Amino acid sequence: MARSIPITAASSATSSLLSDFAHRPRFRLSSEPSRRLALLQLGSALTQPNLLGIKTSKLIRAEGTAQASTRASGEGALEWAKKDNRRLLHVVYRVGDLDKTINFYTECLGMKLLRKRDIPDEKYSNAFLGYGPEDSHFAVELTYNYGVNKYDIGTGFGHFGIAVEDVSKTVELIRAKGGKVTREPGPVKGGSTVIAFIEDPDGYKFEILERGATPEPLCQVMLRVGDLDRSINFYEKAFGMELLRKRENPQYKYTIAMMGYGPEDKNAVLELTYNYGVKEYDKGNAYAQIAIGTDDVYRTAEAVKLLGGKITREPGPLPGINTKITACLDPDGWKTVFVDNVDFAKELE
Ligand SMILES: C[C@@H](O)C(=O)SC[C@H](NC(=O)CC[C@H](N)C(=O)O)C(=O)NCC(=O)O
């Protein structure tokens, strides 16, 4: 059984520049995720036997028919993936000391501790942090596995992106609080955006990027891939994402592609990086996956299979939490978990 842990004083963000974002009046995301979620809960109630008092056997038969028709129509499944209610929910990774990381993210990065849970049966705990409520904002989900205090980050994981209005001031603040700065503020090589890099206690890199005010400061997850067009095709077709931007940087021998479900200035995105000639990376064992919300994990799994994606976890409820999920791998072996939107909303209650 999962146990929620009450959030204590450790969650109070300092008055840093970053925590200002968390305390500002909340921007409405263009796609209105909270309204979308409410509507979708209504729609998905039809698949929740206990909500409408419909006999489970009838629902199982209906679901079976729906799955059969999805199988019969591959194109339908792909169309559906594009129309599904999707949003990047959180990025999951492992840390060696949960409290140390929570302190760093709240004190240095100005995040809020949103929730914690302990799953003793499975011997792990989670902490969720970010810049706004999880029903409308992207978050980090830290995983602590009992007794494991060190992980290998590998070479494939790149960084998480945090957008701020003043990179220099933010970096000074992080430094003053003992944060490790690995790249000083200045224009990105081959471009004009002011960036800096810092490292968290486990060595995960955060790129601090200069942007105007944004509703989603936690704005990027950067992963390196071996064939950019193959990846773009996969995330567009199997995941229904949009290619938001592609940028070549021949001088520094790389190309990036921003993929996601909405504009980059308002939503977290997946930044795929292709370094010329590099086909493979070591994934280590620290970074885990991105979680994406969906109205139907069963149809999601069907669509991914039709596109040649590898399902690593057949759709169904997660032990100890009961949230329905399905997991799959992209062409480079990066994992994504799709999470049932209604179950996820219940987790937040
Ligand atoms: C604004 C947006 O375009 C960026 O910040 S890109 C950041 C840039 N990325 C890369 O260099 C990717 C290729 C690299 N070889 C890798 O695999 O990480 C970056 O990190 N620049 C560093 C700098 O000092 O400017």
UniProtKB/TrEMBL annotation:
Q: EC number(s) in its UniProt entry?
A: 4.4.1.5
Name the reaction it catalyses: (R)-S-lactoylglutathione = methylglyoxal + glutathione
The keyword Acyltransferase is assigned to this record: no
> What's the gene?
LOC103715569
Catalytic site: E207 (proton donor/acceptor)
InterPro entries reported for this sequence: Glyas_Bleomycin-R_OHBP_Dase, Glyas_Fos-R_dOase_dom, Glyoxalase_1, Glyoxalase_1_CS, VOC_core
Please state what the protein is called: Lactoylglutathione lyase
Pfam short name (any one): Glyoxalase
> What molecular function terms (GO) are annotated for this protein?
lactoylglutathione lyase activity; metal ion binding
Q: Which UniProt keywords apply?
A: Lyase, Metal-binding, Repeat, Zinc
Q: Which organism is it from?
A: Phoenix dactylifera
Known cofactor(s): Zn(2+)
The answer on whether this UniProt entry bears the keyword Translocase reads no
